[in-house]
Amino acid sequence: MADGRKDINRALADSLKELAQKTAFEKITIRQITDGAGVTRITFYHHFHDKYDLLGYILRKEILEPVGILLKNDMYKEALTLIFINLKKDSAFYQRVVKIEGQNSFEEISEECIYELLMELFTERSSNKPHSRHPLLTIDSLARYYARSMNYVVMYWIRTGMTVSPEEVAQIYEFLVNRSLWDILKEL
Prior knowledge:
The protein is an all-alpha fold. It has eleven helices and no strands.
């Protein structure tokens, strides 16, 4: 049964991705998604709450899940690069969905997905206690901070046409997170 569930999720994801190439995301209906996947609307709702939930699934499954093993093995550069490579593979799709605004914006969904990945990673590596000298530095606040910064780079890259190579974007992000603001200002 688990394989059947994965197959249905994959079919729904593929259907949404295909529809998003031709239709504004806001105009895509659940009926169109299910027709493209060859399943019923009831089946869709057994798997996802709505099309935004399905979009989050695509991000988790295709962009973030593949980097999990790299992160667990402290291969951060490789993980960052793989995120941008996988986004670039479906650049037409991401350049369309990045335009989703308002409640359930792509930016909001993406940031939440990155946050979930970072929370999992940080939780595995920490006791989840506030920093002894800085009680505001919790796993949650750090995961939110880094999710927001990573998401900003992702959104900016997609919105500017993904013209910079995935490897270079990963290097830029790594440069930003490994230096203080003051060091960066000195280097400008």
